[in-house]
Amino acid sequence: MKTLIKSLLLIVLSVCFIACNNNAKTAENSNDTTTNEASNEKTGQAFIEDEGGTPNALQLAIASKDHSTLVAAVQAAEVENALVNVGPLTVFAPNNAGFAKIDEATLNDLLKPENKSKLAFILTHHVAPANYPIETLKKNAVKNRKLYMASGKYLEVTEKDGDIYVDGVKIIGTVNVSNGWVHVTEDVILPKD
Amino acid sequence: MNTIGKYLLGVAALILMTNCGNNNSNSNSGAMSSSKAEKVYVAPGEHDEYYAFFSGGYSGNITVAGLPSGRMLKEIPVFSQFPTSGYGYSEETKPMLNTSFGFVPWGDAHHPDISQTNGELDGRWIFINENNTPRIARISLETFETEEIIELPNSAGNHASSFVTENTEYIVAGTRFAVPNPQRDMPISEMKGQFKGPLSFVSIADNGRMNLEFQLNMPGFNYDLAHPGRNKSHGWFFFTSYNTEEANTLMEVNASQNDKDYIAAVNWKKVVEYVKNGGGKKVAGTYAHNVYDEKTHTATSTMKEGVISINPVEVEGAVFYIPIPKSPHGCDVDPSGEYIIGSGKLSTDLSVYSFEKVLKAIENKDFVADAYGIPVLSYENTIAGVVKQPGLGPLHTEFDGKGNAYTTFFISSEVVKWKLGTWEILDRQPTFYSVGHLMIPGGNSRKPFGKYMVAMNKITKDRYLPTGPELEHSAQLYDISGDKMELLSDFPTHGEPHYAAGIRADLIKEKSKKYYELSENEHPYAAKSESEATVTRNGKEVHISMTMIRSHFSPDNIEGVKVGDKVYLHMTNLEQDFDVPHGFSIIGANTSEILVMPGQTKTIIWEPKREGVWPFYCTDFCSALHQEMQGYIRVSAANSNTPIKYTLDDE
């Protein structure tokens, strides 16, 4: 067979493969029986290519070298879409140093596929479906208002020497994102129970 | 390329295509074994299987679409002026938009609901609520016209509406923004205990007429959504409420402090009985009641005074609160009436209550507290089950009649299918993006049709060709006839489709009106034949009764109109055939055109400001000689002596 034909065949094959692959994904998706596997498909707001505009919480984390562990965890738990919706969201984002404080075995364990729901729970414990700029957090500390997190649990807000702590974890930076606020923390906020 | 090469190429492509097809149909566990495209394809000239009525949200209207195609069939004007037909512009329909605040040209439509008989959709009317100036509208499903609008006094933010009881006995309206009742000048900060959240009950007569029967003057929480009990829980109504904190500022923080808010469970039959026996007291409240008469083709607006207000504490055993986690939104009742699903929009779990347990808790006086004297039932003793960690941001649930429930999740942007009774999650499908309501035709009745589900999303982003910053909302259609939901298609909707109602087409389409009988036209200015056409002057008012038929107006030459006159153009369409409307407009009219259906009479006012000869014409391409369907009105100076004269073909 001539080279030309070979390469044409290859193109047809790959085009069909891509088409098939998309279908296969859908098929796989609708055949899922467990609850967590269904979001295998990388679709949703997290995967919209959108240059320009203020970055949202996920885009910010991806762009930050200091948050590569957090991004890896978000991707492992497949909760990307929870960080890009219209919100408003307040995300407490532990930096890499914060994750490094967790012993490596525990961290690696959490990143395993079978612990996806556990990891998702810990991550959603860092997200509040609310608008909490730092001024509001300060006010919440004074007024003793707790933060209700997407995990269904509450975080306590306290102020000490001008710094804000959520469940004892210190906030070291704040960024306004298109769908709310990201507060960088120096530790992972582990749910109490 | 040699032949064998071509052949191989063809075979390769064919095999792969076939594989693709197989993959596709393997994924389909539904009843029909065909491709997704086939499932939504409605051949030219064929009809859709279902009507879907989408709320237009801030358009104030309803749009009608066919399912499964998603093709838009009509926009029905309800709470907003609609120049396409002249609704709210014509003299006959202006009264429909009258309120106690005067004429309001716009409304915020929310939740359509179709009338029911024995808990099943009967296709007589569709109702829809207005949130901003609290109102409920009734639309005829024979004419697809808004026939009646009733305002709700003493209320604000009518969101928990317009849900219909299973024999269309009552429709409710809620108060999402607690307000002083009666309204008065008072400091906002003193809201607690002072503001109220009245729940209105509107009765529906056999001919459809609505009447505001009474208002339950509830504590000032924000009553958000509602659904009637059905089947075994018929006679009850359930309302979710949030802001039990009674906060009046920065609600996004202050209204999320309490761990639990309430579902209000109302035994409306008991309240009706109480009112019948003279209970409640008449309080002030002014409201407009607007009714459109199909015979005169004219609406009248009546301003009414006073409403019966009921203190819920005074009706023994009628009103209870059930605790529900975290600022609930949706409140849905399954087809059997046993399960009441509350969606705490900030909660990660779904709470399902048992009607039987609620009754038992009431019987045992199993109260954990009271809120302004209303007994609060125990959460533990009324809960039937909890759907654990189904997703983020649960909002609304509908049912398929096969024991399954489908809940939308705004934050995680998905629909989750779960089993009633076992609370087990069966399937989940992403939506694009951030879904609000979902709709299964008949999905909030005793008998859901259970074949299709439509997810209505709040965010569109990249789903369609971009159209600038403002995008129509996206909806997705799923086949739910199999074990797994299958995404079939994606189509834009108009305005904001908060909610929709769907019904099998055959329940409506046969009785859909084709035209109005001219002989039954009782409009006082109708000209039912060309010989009845007249022009009469009454001081500065000129009434022109004109006829329209393919392809001329009668009269089409009019003289004697003067600058400063107020000219009423009463247009009667003499056609007696399906789909032959005529339109009318004239240069210098400060209003919209009118689209006049066969047998109908509609009126616009024209106040000519300049002398001259001014043309008018038919605005709807009605016939081959549509372009010839025009006429002239001569306008003379205010002090001229030009006599009234009107002719057709100089006769």
UniProtKB/TrEMBL annotation, chain A:
Q: Which GO terms describe its cellular component?
A: extracellular matrix; extracellular space
Print the keywords alphabetically: Signal
User: What is the annotated signal peptide range for this record?
Assistant: 1-24
* Matches recorded under Pfam families: Fasciclin
The cross-references to InterPro entries, in alphabetical order and at most eight, read: Adhesion/Biosynth-related (IPR050904), FAS1_dom_sf (IPR036378), FAS1_domain (IPR000782)
Q: Does the entry feature the keyword Nucleotidyltransferase, yes or no? A: no
The Swiss-Prot or TrEMBL record annotates one GO molecular function as: cell adhesion molecule binding
**Residue ranges of domain FAS1 in the record:** 54-189
BP GO annotations: cell adhesion; extracellular matrix organization
Instruction: Report the SMART domains cross-referenced here.
Output: FAS1
Signal: is it a keyword of this entry? yes
Under what name is this protein listed?
Answer: Uncaracterized surface protein containing fasciclin (FAS1) repeats
Species this chain originates from: Algibacter luteus
Automatic annotation (TrEMBL), chain B:
- Highest taxon above the source species: Bacteria
The signal sequence is none
Q: Which controlled-vocabulary keywords does the entry list?
A: Copper, Metal-binding
Q: Name one GO molecular function term.
A: copper ion binding
State a GO cellular component annotated for this protein. cell envelope
Q: Where in the cell is it found?
A: Cell envelope
Query: Where would you say this protein principally sits, based on its record?
Result: other
Pfam families found in the cross-reference section? nos_propeller
Show the stretches that span the lipid bilayer: none
What NCBIfam families does the record point to? nitrous_NosZ_Gp (TIGR04246)
**PANTHER family documented for this protein:** CYTOCHROME C OXIDASE SUBUNIT II, NITROUS-OXIDE REDUCTASE
Protein name in the entry: Nitrous oxide reductase apoprotein
